[in-house]
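Final report, closing paragraph on structural work. Over the funding period we assembled a curated collection of sequence-structure pairs, and we close with a single example.
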Amino acid sequence: MWLFAGMLSAFLCVTMSSCSDSDESNPGTPAADTSTLTTFTVGSVSFNMVAVDGGTFRMGATYELLGDATDREKPDHSVTLSSFRIGETEVTQELWQAVMGTNPSAHQGARLPVEQVSWVDCLDFISKLNALTGQTFRLPTEAEWEFAARGGTKRQDHKFSGSNKVNEVAWFQASSGGATHEVGTKLPNELGIYDMSGNVWEWCKDFYGAYSSESQTNPSGPAMGTFRVIRGGAYDTSFYGCRVSYRETGTDENHRSGSCGLRLAL
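Its predicted structure, as stored:
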């Protein structure tokens, strides 16, 4: 039985041995590089954050994606990012329940990604999670999201996050059976991050805005705007929306959907 937030205590674990060497639910999944993981625990629910070394990359419609790219993904441009951490998986319903005491999701299951949460809801969740852990979790910027999805400094220029074969790494319209799936049951990308293609869309910090060809360092999007960025595609989208450069035109920050959740950054 899940515990309510008022009954919880939070613990921070920075242990490299706390992460399993294999994924029993998906024996074909390579072992995660535990040296890059930091484990946090809220009540009885643990989750991992993956270290992403800083670097420079081309963001947007790069050569391997040009054939499928929309104008929203152009022009590709140089982005330099500092190091950060990002969630190994999307935020699960059990973690949301542990922090918030409720579970708004349309598809119910402890290890399913939480959904039916707006951008504003996510900020509330993160504020309460930070109070419990003493950390400074946040939503990733759009640039951080894409860098991590591409595999960071280990990237191999895949169309999807970890593969050129969408079925290997994503739950999407043709493979999901019309529902979300437990996190971490497809193959990870080069950094050991799961489900950055498919399963649920993921909120980013940024307002949506058109790209510029100018080089940028640690960009965080326009200072003002109308809509927030969501990334990654979902269980009910085609393979097209699961590409690492694909971006929607933006979503109202109060919008809730059964196909939209979040991933933490730190």
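Residues 5-261 form a domain with the paralog of FGE (formylglycine-generating enzyme) fold (CATH 3.90.1580.10). The first strand starts at residue 10 and ends at 13. We thank the funder for supporting this effort.
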